[in-house]
Amino acid sequence: MSARFNTILIPVDFTLNTQVAIAKTLGLLEDADAAIHLLHVARPSWILRTLRQVAKTRDYEFQARIEQRLEELVLRIQKVKPGIRVITWTDNTQSVEKAITAKASFLSADLLVIGKHSSNWLLPFGRKVIPARIATATGVPVLTVKPGSLKNPVRTVVIPVGPKFPKKKLELLHAWRDTPDCTIRLVSCLSHDKDDAYSKDSLLNTFRLLKTSWPGSVEYDVLRGNNHARALLNYCKKVNADMLIVYPGEETNAGVFPARYISDLLPVDSRTQILAIQPV
Fold first, then answer.
1. Count of domains for the chain
2. What is 207-259 written as a DSSP string?
């Protein structure tokens, strides 16, 4: 997989989420032939359907408004990046997460960028989109960003290292290779009740490789804790991490019932972006 992101999909809901996702996407574009795909899932909830009936808004009028707002986003993006290709899509046939998953697979996207302003911590079972689930289903890297990351460039990247060599994570890492003074922090998360020698060996081997090939600083640490996702979040807060690259599963499941994605525990003003990629 190339570290260059030429086909980027952004789900849009016309809120602050959309603004943050677009801003971060524009900062990642390098090639002139790159394309941004904007997807709005227009399938309304029963509440919105009721409100539309009360307001007597016809379906074609609603669709026209959506298309107009999408075109406004296209013009705004092209004002910042003249000549960039921006394609818009709408889907009113399935749920938000299913629509995003289907479109990411259809486009063979290089990256999916999701803005998340709210964590919905009061009703976690009602979350419409779980990034780790999309990354697992599609194999497409999913970048989750919050408003706090908007003005922060990527300077510190945290990469968890397990028993196996983190090949996919390092491939993604090269997208930030030319970023000045970008520090890599490798970490192994070990449970309190066991000593994983394989993870330690993998950590040291990865450190040695990056130490000789990465242009910036490379450091490593060993974390302790039975909940790896929470241990990683605490570490990111401690080192002011701008990016955390994770595999879906143990590194993204915070272990709260119902199970919550790691970014749901980040405050709105967090600078840490979460990049999830399926290892295989």
1. 2
2. HHHHHHH-SS-EEEEEEE-S-HHHHHHHHHHHHT-SEEEE-TTTTTB--PSSP
Domain of residue 94, residue span: 7-147
- Which tens digit of pLDDT belongs to each residue from 161-184? 999 899 999 999 988 988 889 999
Q: What's at 187, amino acid-wise?
A: V
Task: Please state, in angstroms and as integers, the Cα–Cα distance from residue 270 to each residue in 119, 214, 234, 242, following that order.
Answer: 12, 26, 12, 9
Residues 139 and 225 in one domain: no
Query: What is the average pLDDT across 189-207?
Result: 82
Instruction: Specify burial of residue 139 (Cβ count, 10 A radius: 0-12, 13-18, 19+).
Output: middle
Locate all alpha helices (DSSP H) within the chain, ordered by sequence.
16-26, 46-55, 59-80, 96-107, 131-138, 167-173, 197-213, 228-239
Instruction: Give the dihedral of Cα atoms 7, 17, 89, 92; nearest 10 deg.
Output: 140
Distance CA 271, CA 261 (A): 17
Residues 133-156 have a mean pLDDT of: 93
Whether 17 is covered by a domain: the verdict is yes
